[in-house]
Queue: 4 jobs
Job 1
Amino acid sequence: MAEAECFLEEWARNVAPGLGPRVEVVLAKLDEFRIELKGIEVTAGARRQGIGTRVMNQITELADRTGAAVILFLEPSAAVRLEPFYQRFGFVSMDGGNSMEYEPQSPPQAPGRPSAQ
């Protein structure tokens, strides 16, 4: 099974059920090696309690375990505010700051895996 499929399967089985009603995370498969983080929504009353940080830690830990890269696209109006948050978890800017990517820190051996370029 490709990295992206492993990531999504493990997310659905082991992570998403434990998130609870205060947070919604939308993920999608870009290709066999990459996941797109489409959004994280924390309910208004639950913000500033570290929920987003815990979710991002879960996403990057799962990316490291499965070898899947995680891509996110930022709205230009939100990029200045959100980029430092994502950088804390190892995401780097691409394409002039409109997108960011997290490369797994310990990917499994996968012959033919394309680089992040």
Note: The mean pLDDT is 85.
Job 2
Amino acid sequence: MNIDYEKFIPCTDISLAAYLVSFSHIIKIDATDPQKVVFFFEDTSELHDSISGFWNNTVTIAPLEYFNNIKNLKTRIHLER
């Protein structure tokens, strides 16, 4: 799959990525660096709103959904390595 990374937002924070997974599909996970994982999300205005809401603490997510998203991301990281 050939990806134009200029159309995507990189994210290295697993807590933010776990929140964003609820609203946006991860296009790619780059786990080639053993010290850091990068999640790539499609760059949309909705994604920017979600990121702002997350950091401003103005959004909510069901705790079980958030917990499952973290577990699923960790599984995908290990599959990428």
Note: Residues 5-80 form one domain.
Job 3
Amino acid sequence: MQPVVEALAQGNWGRNLNQVNQLMEKTPRKSCRTFNREDSAPVSIATVIERHEAMLTPAMLAVLLAISVKSIYAWVKAGTLPACILGTSIRFDPCDTAAWIRARTE
């Protein structure tokens, strides 16, 4: 899981999401709630999202939350998940999304 965590924490998504998906397929599955680095304390997924510097796409958020993109779109349509709708594109502010996750996990 280490290469995936480092790629996500650094905002290094590669050229496309397929690279992240390939990394995730090669790594053993662990808890989705926290990422553990050998040299630091566990980091919550909300913290990983909050540290991301750019807006997140629905596909990026789906990978981070380990859910389908279809669920992301359904939550946005229902008004459950805070999103920025820019024309026909949907983006997610990392701070707002992290706060939304924390409100549901506490």
Note: The chain has a mean pLDDT of 78.
Job 4
Amino acid sequence: MKTLLPQSDVWCIDNYLEVMRKKSKSNEAISVENQDFHDWTSYLSQYYKKIDRIQKYHMFQFDKKQKGIVPSEDWTRINILRKKQVVTHLEPKVEPRKGMNVENQQTMYLVICQYVLDR
């Protein structure tokens, strides 16, 4: 993707999605313009404990027979279920969309407009 994108003619989000679809065989590129974003972190923290020494992205193997048990690096098993679940909300909260502020929009316009062809 890093090599294909600079070689591609991308002028809008649809062009970008088209490049992504051509390059990726396993992932599907979709526009999330009309999709809601949810605060999954606070929602799931009602049910699960935070695991120390874990980076942002980790892969784990789960077994449906041992719910809430996660194998750790030293081959021990950690129970991540909270003993006392205090449910404050039944569904994840919808996050407000964060757009670009006016100052950044103007800066981006000034930087990019020199490369846009007159029609």
Note: Strands lie at 37-38, 69-71, 77-79, 94-95.
